[in-house]
Amino acid sequence: MLSIGDLSRRTGVKVPTIRYYEQSGLLEATARTDGNQRRYGEAEAEKLGFIRHARDLGFSLDAIRALIELQDHPDRSCAEANALARDQLAEVTERIRRLQALERELQRIAEGCDGDGTAGSCYVLRSLADHGACETEHS
């Protein structure tokens, strides 16, 4: 059995996050010692590893909850898991598109200024003051 600190070190998940996952129902409440310390077994460590990996991939807590539900029922179709993964991929692809647009706009602004002038004539400051001058849509 692992203490919460041992579980944290083993999985790389911070103690407050482990507690949050318990409160949100992603991890089941664990057994406690007579001294009221949490104790975790191998199953909890594996589930926490699953949650951490899914979070690293950007899945929401609701999506992770659905994925855990599927994992707990191995006889069910994996179509829902596939749909969740495809939705996450689409979200990441869109985020990358927006970041690339931001990169292009920032590059344009930075390259428009040689840094030798004064703040009153600075291309960077003028560009930031006039959102209509942006060449790419970003939010």
TrEMBL record:
Residues 1-70 form the HTH merR-type domain. It comes from the Bacteria. Keywords: Coiled coil, DNA-binding, Transcription, Transcription regulation. InterPro entries: DNA-bd_dom_put_sf, MerR-type_HTH_dom, MerR_fam, Tscrpt_reg_MerR_DNA-bd. One of its GO terms (molecular function) is DNA binding. The keyword DNA-binding applies. SMART domains: HTH_MERR. Gene3D superfamilies: 1.10.1660.10. Residues 82-109 form a coiled coil. The keyword Iron does not apply. PANTHER family: HTH-TYPE TRANSCRIPTIONAL REGULATOR ZNTR, REDOX-CYCLING DRUG-SENSING TRANSCRIPTIONAL ACTIVATOR SOXR. This is MerR family transcriptional regulator. The lineage of its organism: Bacteria, Pseudomonadati, Pseudomonadota, Alphaproteobacteria, Rhodobacterales.
